[in-house]
Design a protein that fits this description.
Length: about 725
Amino acid sequence: MPGLRSLAPAKLTWYARRLQSMGPREVADRALTVGATAARRVTGDREPDDATLLGDGAQRSSTRREGDADPDWAAMLDDFRAGTGRPVLLDRDTATAVAAAQPEAVKELLAAADRVLEHRFTFFAHPEAHYPGPIDWSYDPLSGVHWPDLPSHAINHRAGHGDPKWIWELNRLQHLPWLAEAWLLTGDERYGTEALDQLDAWITANPPGRGIAWRGAFEVGVRAISVLVALQGLADHPALTPGRYARAVRMLAAGARRCWRDRSKHSSANNHLVGELAGLATVAILLPELAASARWERDAVAALAVEADRQILPDGVGAEQAVGYQVFTAELLAVVALLRRLRPAHVPAPADGTLLAALGRSAAHLADLVGTGDPTPRTGDDDEGFALRLDPAPTREVRPHLALAAALTGLPAARRAGTTDLTSAWIATRLGAESGADLAWEPGSAYAPDGGLAILRAGHRRVTVDIGPLGYLAIAAHGHADALAVGLAVDGHDLVGDPGTGSYFAHPEWRTAHRSTRAHATVAVDDADQSVMGGPFLWTEHATVRVHGVDLPAGRVDAEHDGYRRLATPVTHRRVVDAPPDDDVVLVVDVLSGPSPARTTWPLHPDLTVDDRADDHTDDHTDDHTVVARRDGRPVLRIATAATAPLTGWRLYGGDEGAGELGWWSDRLEARRPCWFVGAQVSPDDGPVIVATLLAAGAAGDVDAPAIETGPDGTVRVRWSGTSGPRETVVGAP
């Protein structure tokens, strides 16, 4: 059957590895879940009846009379239209103000809504898909895969022939708010009619608990946010009838129960749990007439407050070690905080402060990271997820997110670093957020000790050093094997950076390569990964970083990791980055405690081309190699390397035959373009081995290879020349 395969040995191996990552409590809990799922195969996963859904008359509607045989859905729809007892985000007055302030953004939104009218959808870097007739919500027209009509728990999305990410993106219904906005902005009934027709068709085609759209509570939670926000925008549309409202509410209530019952736990409780809780809270806040809403909101918000402190670390770094997921997680928290703040007569509770504090510290870190003109580092995975999609931009970028965070928190750094889009404009307008607050903020160097990231700034240059953990929880699902990786950006352009995510499901070989150590600006020993992959979203062994020191005024970072201690010849990799604030040259010293073969990798942005000049000479067993990187024919970066063991330079270009899966840069999920990977290889006879690399940017001009001296006590001295004159870097004995 298309979309399904039998359990192959590789799948059984994955299950065994996944089991090893669980503790006893998780194993027991999952066993109970399997039993409950088996029971639901018999009983089904049905919508609640109205008596269960609405409870007693007082909970059903302000106009509900005791003794009525059936719920008064017309009265409840009137309450929904009036915003009785609930916050309102999309409304006509706000639409008028947003249209006046953001005319170009509104044009783009209307163009996107027009494409939805034609049933045209584009997700990730895939080409546009077109449904010439009614939308088949389980059919992926790009791959020709029709996902099976089965109970959702019986569908193995990992074994399908198509890309489950694509079909999930369609079924998140995040295009419905665009149609609702277009209706509010133009008054053209076609937009609202199309949105409500699509929602009706979706509910008919996707009964609760059946089909790929219900595969996982996370998808249910994210979809609930889209549907409810869209319904609010369509509240006064003539095609929204009591019957349609009743069908939508029943579906949303069934989804809310699923979000809580099947919420992610233990080693899976990452951003998925936040999405499930945010969806549950949104249903509870926007549909207070439901009997369970008060309990759902209480439980969901309390759990979200706990996750806010777990998944946004004290220094503001996302615990998953992935910038894209940090933005996604923070915005899920922001949706709930926003709705609670907008609710009539809302009295702030401690949980509200916790959510906003997490959003604020996340925004402060992201502002440190991107400053007022630096590119966004693409550390870890990024699946381009949106929590609330009111703008048709294809990806959720850091700067528009910072504008949203600024509207909710008033953080000056977020205001200065953020750029307004439709999402942040709607929110700021509804909140009446001031735009003229003090914007006096200039980015500087920063160190996030909990998340493990050092940011070394000097004028037009930003250096980042990853000295954090692999990822979050036992499986570290969205982390990459990038310990001690260095990034270099100058004048707002990446020179050395992270090549991105590549793929999730469509190209498994891309996923393996883009998570690997060789794909990052660090050192690979024996061409092995620092951490051990157990599957596409599973790491079975984690490299651990130990920080020796971070000196921001001096621009120096000193750390090591133990990921290669597992090798037959154990090796500790220590890296010292010396980026003086008064110099355009950065020195990177790698100390490898054992004699195994190793290579440095410097992934260059695809806009750069390279030529090289190899000056091989022997002087105290030190060879050097220099690479020149150019943009538009102009040299912008020189990389000069020396080592205490025989050294050869290497270059790899992804567009060349035989390059394999390395040498590629992925700006978007499911797309990549060729780039240069350059570096040096050492083949030592004994150890330790020292490799010293100079990264000379911009005005640094030509550079000579550094000179390395080792003392009998293990001290390493590297003499090098920067734009400010001769320098010496000392690495103390291990």
